[in-house]
Amino acid sequence: MELSRERLLDTYRTMRTIRSFEQTLNELSQAGRVPGFLHLYAGEEAVAAGVCATLGADDYVTSTHRGHGHSIAKGVDLNAMMAEIFGKRSGVCKGKGGSMHIADLGKGMLGANGIVGGGIPLAIGAALSAKVRKTGSVAVAFFGDGATNQGAFHESVNIASILKLPVVFVIENNGYGEATPVAYHVNIPDLAARAVSYGIPGVVVEGMDFFDVFDKARAAVERARRGEGPTLMECKTYRYFGHYVGDPLTYRTKEEGEKVRATRDPLDAFEKRVVSSGKVTTSELRAADDQVARAIAEAVKFAEASPAPELADLLTDVYVQYSA
Amino acid sequence: MATRKCAFVQAINEALFQAMERDPNVIVLGEDVAGGAGQKEDAWGGVMGATKGLIGRFGAQRVIDTPISETGLVGMAVGAATTGLRPVAELMFMDFIGVCLDQLLNQAAKLRYMFGGKAKVPLVVRTMIGAGLRAAAQHSQTLYPMTTAIPGLKTVVPSNPYDAKGLLLAAIADDDPVIFCEPKSLYTMTGEVPEEFYTVPLGKAAVARAGGSVTIVACGKMVETSLAAAKSLAAEGIDAEIIDLRSLSPLDEDSVLASLGKTGYLVVVDEAPPRCGIAADISALAADKGFDLLRGPIRRVTSPHAPVPFSPVLEDAYIPTPARVVEAVHSALES
Ligand SMILES: Cc1ncc(C[n+]2csc(CCOP(=O)(O)OP(=O)(O)O)c2C)c(N)n1
Ligand SMILES: [Mg+2]
Question: What is the pLDDT of residue B40?
Fold first, then answer.
């Protein structure tokens, strides 16, 4: 394990923050305290944390409707995220976007996305921009198994492969697109195999294992930075909650979820590994838990206390207005 | 006919059952229209339950869960329609039309004409429209002006459960491609719906409320908004007539002009933004073919020229309200 104690603790805090953020939102949403629809990332923490741990502040990510984890891992401010989800003016997008559109361009977070597959072309655009401007930045597109059935995915991977763009395509294969299992919606066992059609590396990753994600993402990001072109990573993972908060989960068994939690939980696995390595102690991790819990409670407090947008905000950020 | 109270979404569901019952060439396809891998029973039956029970009754041959591939699924429906089926494709949210627009704009809409009348495309695309559910900019748009503007496509927007069922059955029976827009905020609205099969003709507006003081033209969710406005207008002695367009294309110009002939004043209410929308279109109709009938300026009530905001306070200010309709009527009558 080459990562330093500090980096391991940072990583743990990132994953714990994602987990707690989502658990908290699940409760708040069910209690009717958060407006709109929420797609929670719990269970998939190792993917966002593992990939983003290989990125610098100047690298880009594009995200999905299930975007909280990517935002947190890319360093978006928790208070501003929470306020956005509450629709408040202090939100990272002034309350205009909500959960499905969190973006922080200064952090290289180019946006969650309400359109399945919609972020993938944007990622190759960011990669093109980095290449032409010679900034050395890399772009990562996060998207689900379901999104690999969109033309936007295939077109983007192909373009990136012929132009050798500095981009990494990260499939978060959580087993389902909404209520539809992967085994139904594609005809191959490993989505990574789709890379073959584009002549780029395709890598299967145990997405519940931070270290596997980290190692393989690092190789892909380095390859991209060297100008050798894109990689397709398929991270096998699992979403703990439903597709959205309120999903009756009628398409999978309770046992299936319980088994994953008991045997593959990314936080448990990480803890076991780092504690047994002797680099981090259990009490340090529990202290991190407390720290995270406080930060999230603070974010909720901040969001709830923040004022709503002003009515004039309705008409800002559009280039032209027509009087009523 | 035996009627009973029924929710909008159930009326849609019942229309699908009855159309599939009557014609083995009617199929339903879309993302999670069954859910759970197209087995014998559905897991979801559509994200809002509109297609619930269909797979259990008609099987996975005719009720097809598709991957998340709007170009493929809508295009497949166009091809199937051209070769003998009557597909009802579900484009979950109309916002997603961007993904599959070519198949509608350049294929479905053009085949009959381009091929000299030889092709028939009896396709229905069911799709949800409208704001109000805190679903933000990519899940809340009212995009029917776009499809209305395309020659070769029909566009229908029901405003109540009765019309939802009758218009959907008419759309499925129609030999041209129909974009069937379902205002998602009306799904829970209940109303009297006959149990039997019936159709509501495409291209015929309805008088949702008869009156003599002013004509309010609306469609979809805005009919409800206009009815609420009419109620408060009635309290001050203004007797509004509300024309529910129901079909945007073909458009029932005669009903609009007839009402205008009666009242002389026109207010158009549209949930879409103001440019190139239905309010603009109906205003142009009145100015063009009804100029002599007008006794005052036309007033439009629309959403602003902006994407739909997420924040509840902003979204509530975005969607036209009864108060804004009342204000527009006052303005029309006072000028
Ligand atoms: C173009 C488009 N089609 C359909 C949807 C509706 N939708 C939202 S999320 C989703 C499932 C996405 O599945 P996947 O890509 O596997 O991501 P996951 O939700 O599993 O993270 C669907 C169908 C959408 N938002 N955009
Ligand atoms: Mg998925």
Answer: 79
**Which residues of chain A does B325 touch, with a Cβ-Cβ cutoff of 8 Å?**
none
The residues, any chain, with a CB within 8 Å of residue A31's CB and separated by 6 or more, are: none
Q: Which pair of tokens denotes residue B295?
A: 């006794």
- Pairing of the two strands B86-93 and B154-156: unpaired
CATH: 1.20.1740.10, 3.40.50.920, 3.40.50.300, 1.20.1250.20. Which one for B206-334?
A: 3.40.50.920
Per-residue tokens: A316:
């800002």
Mutation target to probe the B interface, by most B beta carbons within 10 A, among A148, A180, A244 is: A180
For domain B3-194, the question of CATH label 2.60.40.10 is answered with no
A177 Cα: distance to centroid of ligand 1 (angstroms): 6
Tell how far the Cα of A108 is from the centroid of ligand 1, in angstroms: 23
Q: Which ligand is nearest to the CA of B101?
A: 1
Which residues of chain B are under the pLDDT cut of 50?
Answer: none
Residue A309's SS3 state is: coil
Interface test with B, best of A89, A244, A314, A320 (most B CBs within 10 A): A314
- The torsion angles phi and psi of A61, rounded to 5 degrees, stand at -135, 145
What pairing do the DSSP bridges indicate for beta strands B86-93 and B124-129?
A: parallel
Q: Parallel, antiparallel, or unpaired: how do β-strands B266-269 and B299-301 relate?
A: parallel
Mean pLDDT on A18-46 = 98
ipTM over 0.90: yes
CA A178 / ligand 2 centre spacing (Å): 7
CA B12, chain centre distance (Å): 12
Q: Half-sphere exposure of B101 toward its Cβ, with a 13 Å CA cutoff?
A: 11
Biggest CA pair distance of chain A: 67
> Which residues lie closer than 8 Å to B39 by C-beta, 6 or more apart?
B55, B60
Contacts of B215 (CB under 8 A, 6+ apart): B240, B241, B242, B243, B256, B259, B260, B262, B263, B265, B266, B267
Tokens 């629309």 locate to B302
pTM of the model: 0.98
The reported pLDDT for the residue numbered B220 is 98
Q: Does A323 have pLDDT greater than 90?
A: no
> CA-CA distance, A64 to A114, in Å (whole number)?
7
Atom from ligand 1 closest to the CA of residue A118: 1
CB atoms A114 and B69 under 8 Å: no
Angle at B201 between CA B197 and CA B203, to 5 degrees: 160
To which CATH superfamily is domain A5-315 assigned? Thiamin diphosphate (ThDP)-binding fold, Pyr/PP domains (3.40.50.970)
| pLDDT attached to residue A324 | 60
